[in-house]
From TrEMBL:
Contains 1 topaquinone per subunit. This is Amine oxidase. Belongs to the copper/topaquinone oxidase family. The keyword Metal-binding applies. Its EC number is 1.4.3.-. Residues 68-79 have a biased composition (Basic and acidic residues). Transmembrane segments: none annotated. Residues 58-80 are annotated as: Disordered. Homodimer. It catalyses: a primary methyl amine + O2 + H2O = an aldehyde + H2O2 + NH4(+). GO terms for molecular function: copper ion binding; primary methylamine oxidase activity; quinone binding. The active site is at residues 370, 458.
Length: 727
């Protein structure tokens, strides 16, 4: 797709006093423009932008690229997301409610209000569903409300929010209107022209501003920074450095314009485009095409749109506008008893914290909370078959609500597929000296649930990978485009002394700024039931007594059961190693070990920011890599329910400091994957994917190796594919 045509699905076309067309980039998810009122902000006179066309998709039924239509969707499971019909009912109920009748309003979140956990655990397929309710976060007259809407009765319970700081996740309309606001300001337009940028080439980003003091309180603010699209689709590499516009999101007024980069040139467009169609490449490929073929089809099934069954696993899967993907009721079949056993009640991405390490005027506030500010699921893009996901993948659409409650479709938001990469499930070959000719090996095939979100420049790939041995691997991949800073320097030999660049010179006049990524996961582990305990298994050096052994030292495992939350605040230490188990103390194996799972850490970068630094106060959930809290349905978002401009008084760190009992209780484990990113030239103009992961691994959960009886591959069972030339 041509760059300008592609960008028109993402940019606002705004009518201005000038005769020129103005484009502004907005932080948009992959939704058809017609699905969201106001999303495709054309000039009023544009024939492309009539309200009839704008609403055509919903009126005629959502048309996702997966081929599914959603008008007749119905829930089958208590955790199934709201359907198109239910969204429309909620919208109608709210429009007739007294709170919304006479005032403009915005719905910032409309999702299923999940039934109580104990009820869901008892529910079986074929049982009647519990009353369906919607949890709604709305703003009316600059006030935030939390509502529960009973879809069948039409009842509405309203709670006004006053006691904590912060605002809800931005709507798409918030972001589009914020980026168009500067264009109505004559000083801004004049500054752009003076910087040598044609207004028709302008692209602007809505940037959350964190919280840095009282002057930012009592109004929703956002900062806008702009780029030049001239000569490239990769406008991120052409920042108009130092120009920042402060906008009031409710009034749409420009509060302040800061321009402190007039001496910094606009980086050139040369070599910034990353599209295959724009690159000069030879037709010779580095590797031959490869594909995993499944003539008998995949081994998994998706029942009733959201319930996945594969090998010895089953779980509920749904898209979510804030978390992206939610895995629920994950259970595995025991190979000995045949029993289906509980492992995890619910798991999802709770928050992403991305602080940039530049304290200067145009950068200090860039400390994003991608889930709580922008909506991680709202930024999910349609996955590209054969490139994002292999053949035989199953695709799942998301159905979400726009700011006025109108439902729209996020097509192909999630894919599910089987992976075989030549890995080995288990093996052993016996040495010839034993006289036994034994060579046993088993292939490893896994099931992957994948989502990819493009939060402006950065792309996140989140995989939940299920293995037949009971292990769950959670992996995050980072790709996309760096957020860069313009500079007057074109070469490192121009640097005076030890001047602080706050990053790496990637190309002429472009600095990749150092930053961190922290991805915090909510993991409601239910190991054979809800009452679990957290055990820290310390690996300690033991010194032998004189004459006891030729050895002078060895290692010993010392188990410590956490009594309260503070016992389970874990900060990793390389030379003080531990294992971290969630066990069911009420159920033992045949030989008397408590059944459990353990967290196998990776991606262990820790925040080095001062705990009193305002961004770290808001991101205090990254002060530890592991936390354990008692289950509380209201404590699911590590940065708090209302993250935007919050001051950090409703975070995981605050909850955990209550030091509540957690031994033999229904507990939730929180794990944070961390990345330090010092950019390098290989990250330009687009980054190769860097990934890290952690595992949830059985520990004394099974009586023995659960894949012991898996048969080996034999030639006759495998498909034989001929090269295209021989076909």
């Amino acid at each position: 797709m041509e760059s300008r045509k592609f960008l028109r699905l993402l940019l606002i076309f705004v009518s201005a006093a000038l005769v020129l067309s103005l484009f502004t980039w907005v932080h948009l998810p992959s939704v058809p423009p017609a699905a969201v009122p106001g999303l495709f902000g054309c000039a009023a006179s544009s024939p492309r932008c009539t309200s009839k066309k704008r609403f055509q998709l919903i009126k005629n039924g959502p048309k996702p690229t997966s081929g599914r239509r959603h008008e007749s969707d119905a829930p089958h499971h208590p955790l199934d997301p709201l359907t198109v019909q239910e969204f429309n009912k909620v919208r109608g109920i709210l429009r007739s409610h007294q709170l919304f009748k006479s005032s403009p309003y915005a719905l910032h979140s409309v999702v299923l209000e999940e039934p109580e956990k104990s009820l869901v655990q008892k529910w079986r397929k074929g049982d009647p569903l519990f009353p369906r309710k919607a949890a709604v976060v709305a703003r009316v007259k600059r006030q935030t409300y939390v509502l529960t809407v009973d879809i069948s009765t039409g009842g509405v319970a309203v709670q006004k929010v006053n006691h904590i700081s912060g605002y809800p996740v931005m709507t798409i309309e918030d972001m589009t209107s914020a980026t168009s606001a500067p264009l109505s300001n004559a000083d801004f337009n004049r500054t752009i022209i003076e910087r040598g940028v044609d207004l028709k080439d302008l692209a602007c980003l809505p940037i959350s501003l964190g919280w840095f003091g009282k002057k930012e309180e009592n109004r929703r603010l956002i900062k806008v920074q702009c780029y030049s699209m001239e000569g490239t689709a990769n406008f991120y590499m052409r920042p108009i450095e130092g120009l920042t516009v402060l906008v009031d999101m409710d009034s749409k007024d420009v509060v302040e314009i800061s321009d402190k980069g007039r001496n910094i040139p606009l980086p050139k467009a040369d070599n910034t485009d990353y599209r295959y169609s724009a690159l000069k490449v030879s037709e010779t490929k580095m590797v031959n095409p490869i594909s995993i073929e499944q003539p008998k089809g995949p081994s998994f099934a998706v029942e009733d749109e959201h319930f996945v069954k594969w090998a010895n696993w089953e779980f509920h899967l749904k898209p979510d506008p804030r978390a992206g993907v939610i895995i629920s009721r994950a259970r595995v079949r025991d190979p000995d008893s045949g029993e289906i056993r509980n492992v995890m009640y619910k798991g999802f991405t709770s928050e992403l914290f991305v602080p940039y390490m530049d304290p200067t005027d145009a950068w200090y506030f860039k400390t994003y909370m991608d889930a709580g500010e922008y909506g991680f699921g709202l930024q999910a893009m349609s996955l590209d078959p054969l490139n994002d996901c292999p053949r035989n993948a199953h695709y799942m659409d998301g159905v979400f609500a726009a700011g006025d409650g109108t439902p729209y479709v996020q097509s192909n938001m999630i894919c599910v597929f089987e992976r075989y990469a030549g890995d080995i499930g288990w093996r052993h070959s016996e040495s010839p000296i034993t006289g036994m000719e034994i060579r046993e090996a088993r292939p490893k095939v896994t099931l992957v649930v994948r989502m990819a979100a493009s939060v402006a420049n950065y792309d996140y790939i989140v995989d939940w990978e299920f293995q037949t041995d009971g292990l769950i691997k959670v992996k995050v991949g980072l790709s996309g485009i760096l957020m860069v800073k313009g500079t007057s320097y074109a070469n490192m030999n121009q640097m005076p002394g030890q001047k602080n660049l706050y990053g790496t010179l990637l190309s002429e006049n472009i600095i990749g700024v150092i930053h961190d990524h922290y991805v915090t996961f909510y993991l409601d582990m239910d190991i054979d039931g809800s009452d679990n305990s957290f055990v820290k298994v310390d690996i300690k050096k033991q010194v032998t007594s004189p004459g006891e052994s030729p050895r002078r030292s060895y290692l010993k495992a010392v188990r410590n059961v956490a009594k309260t939350e503070k016992d389970a605040q874990i900060h990793f230490k390389l030379y003080d190693p531990s294992e971290f188990h969630v066990i069911n103390p009420n159920k033992k194996t045949r030989v008397g070990n408590p059944v459990g799972y353990k967290v196998v850490p990776a991606g262990t970068a820790a925040s080095l920011l001062d705990h009193d630094d305002p961004p770290q106060k808001r991101g205090a959930f990254t002060n530890n890599q592991i936390w354990v809290t008692p289950y509380n349905q209201s404590e699911q978002w590590a940065g708090g329910l209302f993250v935007y401009q919050s001051q950090g008084e409703d975070t995981l760190a605050v909850w955990s400091d209550r030091d509540r009992p957690i031994e033999n209780k229904d507990i939730v484990l929180w794990y944070t994957l961390g990345f330090h990113h010092v950019p390098c030239q290989e990250d330009f103009p687009i980054m190769p994917t860097v990934s890290s992961s952690f595992d949830l691994k059985p520990v004394n959960f099974f009586e023995s190796n659960p894949i012991l009886r898996v048969p080996p591959n034999v030639e006759r069972d495998l498909p034989v594919c001929k090269p295209a030339a021989d076909a």
